Amino acid sequence: MIAYVRGTVAAVSLTSAVVEVGGVGLQVLCSPATLASLRHGQETQLATSFVVREESMTLFGFLDDDEKACFELVQTASGVGPKLAQAVMAVMTPDALRRAIADDDVKALTRVPGIGQKGAQRIILELKDRIGVPATVGADRSVATDDRRDQVTQGLVGLGWSTKDAEKALDTVTAELPASADVGALLRAALRHLGKA
């Protein structure tokens, strides 16, 4: 198993990054939040989960071990594979996932593409006793919002847009999205907006 990769970011796309490790470029599938933190040419270390299937070998990358642990735990629920688990981590932070499961919040889980009401209920039932409690209860939301804006702006700049264009797009989509929107939702909305412009 490959527990982590450390090396130079050789490329960043909308769904993955290439990290050069010892002269070999490893393609790592990542959530939008993780991709937003990566800069071409900079050193990085990503926690990874290596998924081997009959037809493929895929490396999934995460900002930290907590996100990786949640990704792997979600896959233990019936009917959840690595792609769906990655979609969960793209839409929700580990704490948001814990909070949704602890509060029996089916609606929060059904915001993940590919999870319906029954699937959400099954995930809650199967993971409730194993996922733990949220670490950031009552965290300062204004600080979180600033952090999200910074991450999305940096991600867009890393993908080739100017800081001015990135911030302008972010201003537009922030007004349209709920205050609870995470980095992934903000980044996707900003990319759609920039794509139209």
From TrEMBL:
Source organism's superkingdom? Bacteria
Q: What does this protein do?
A: The RuvA-RuvB-RuvC complex processes Holliday junction (HJ) DNA during genetic recombination and DNA repair, while the RuvA-RuvB complex plays an important role in the rescue of blocked DNA replication forks via replication fork reversal (RFR). RuvA specifically binds to HJ cruciform DNA, conferring on it an open structure. The RuvB hexamer acts as an ATP-dependent pump, pulling dsDNA into and through the RuvAB complex. HJ branch migration allows RuvC to scan DNA until it finds its consensus sequence, where it cleaves and resolves the cruciform DNA.
Q: Where is the Helix-hairpin-helix DNA-binding motif class domain?
A: 72-91, 107-126
Q: Can you say what this protein is called?
A: Holliday junction branch migration complex subunit RuvA
The record's section on Gene3D superfamilies has:
5' to 3' exonuclease, C-terminal subdomain, DNA helicase RuvA subunit, C-terminal domain, Nucleic acid-binding proteins
Q: How does it assemble?
A: Homotetramer. Forms an RuvA(8)-RuvB(12)-Holliday junction (HJ) complex. HJ DNA is sandwiched between 2 RuvA tetramers; dsDNA enters through RuvA and exits via RuvB. An RuvB hexamer assembles on each DNA strand where it exits the tetramer. Each RuvB hexamer is contacted by two RuvA subunits (via domain III) on 2 adjacent RuvB subunits; this complex drives branch migration. In the full resolvosome a probable DNA-RuvA(4)-RuvB(12)-RuvC(2) complex forms which resolves the HJ.
Which key words tag this protein in UniProt? Cytoplasm, DNA damage, DNA recombination, DNA repair, DNA-binding
**What subcellular locations does the record give?**
Cytoplasm
The beginning of the lineage is: Bacteria, Bacillati, Actinomycetota, Actinomycetes, Propionibacteriales
